[in-house]
Sequence to fold (533 residues):
Amino acid sequence: VKYVILIYSNPTSRELWEKFSAEERGRGLSAYAALTEDLAASGELIVTEALADPSLTKRVSVDEAQTMTSDGPFAEAKELLAGFFLIDCETGERAVEIAARVPEAALGLVELRPAMDLSGFEI
Amino acid sequence: LSPASGVEDLLRELAPQVLGALVRRYRDFDRGEDAVQEALLAAAVQWPAEGVPRNPRGWLIAVASRRLTELWRNESARRRREETAAALEPPDPEPVPDVDDTLTLLLLCCHPSLTPVSQVALTLRAVGGLNTAEIARALLLPEATLAQRISRAKQRIKASGAEFEMPGEGERSERIAAVLRVLYLIFNEGYTASSGSALHRVELTAEAIRLTRQLRDRLPEDGEVAGLLALMLLTDARRPARTRPDGALVPLAEQDRGKWDARAIAEGVDLITRTLASAPVGPCQLQAAIAAVHDEAPSFEDTDWPQILALYEHLYALAPGPMVTLNRIVAVAMVHGPEAGLRELDEADGDPALEGNHRIDSVRAHLLEMAGDREAARAHYRLAARRTLSLPEQRYLEARAAELAETAQR
Fold:
């Protein structure tokens, strides 16, 4: 089953990251690198991306065939999507095990959601 | 048949034989498998243009052997294989012994040290002769993810110390059961709605049937192999009636049976009838027998439900599982009425194997609808729709709930 692991940031986590020493940041980043490497090696990783700063977000809307963009949500205010993994693994337990390795899980900012598929069904 | 597709069929048929010969001679499954892939690619380019060589199998073995030697040489700078590689004779021009290693190869690809998804990927490549890109497309995965699974699977086989040989009597039946599970997984993976992104999928059901036929050629006495082949034929026969033009799935009860593939049904029915009469019964055979009863019925209502129920009772005793439990309950409802089915469903609800399974809700919805309780049926269709991970099923369940809402308003 494919799962997406959503990693959020909130004002507390952003502040924490800003206050980190170079060494602490390095530890966080290498935890990510190790997780990504392990998942690629096991054949469970489909894709992972870290998203750019929330201030670069644009909301896109189309009105009467006119495309408009507006600058999007304010970083200080909300819980925002910061990055994601798309994985394909054997069991839900395994997916939880993987999600638990995301450093933000320590702050309760990690969400795991199964993807839907095209599998058939019999009645 | 275009010359290219004729060549493709021939190559896919020869792939496991060529790999078997190579592994037998050089004892290097990992590199040998890569070498065979390259030989298949070379043949796919050359043969349609220049004609099929007189001895296609020998040609492929020679090209793959040469490629294997090159692969070793390329590595030898880094590894101490240097002497081995340098000392290797050029590929033997003489015909290799005419041994068919397809079965041994299947058993190796479904080795117990591998996870099911790796077994599927490796089987499709090493035995099915598909390339990584085709398999990735078929399984809806990126090529890099799939390539990594295959290379890891080969490393695992090496690390487990598995040999390229027939397992002993003691383990054989268990190992063959693993092969059957993998072939069934491949079949199931392909048995999806042919809509949207699925349109581009390699025909995995056809591939599973082809591989199961190959296995049956090698194990003609095995009742479960025959049972699995019959099950696939009898299930696949319904495919033309299984989807609407817009891609939505049609449940068995509503399918236009005139569209079913009569030839596949005849072959499946004949196979399962002969097998049940001669072999010790097993779960695949029972499932095939159930499929045969459905396929021979003129309509859903006029199905021989008492016989289906008896077969599910047997299957329940032999190989219980959540799907068997639920399908048996549907059969109970068809024979003894929806109230009897609902009573059994209440009992099954406590079964930990069924916990969180949305199919409890969809079966309950069906039985409530049968019993005339449309409001409750609608609620359970909705509940099931929310919890399924299958998009076609979700569409079906939502439509069903919407229909009940409409008729309630009238």
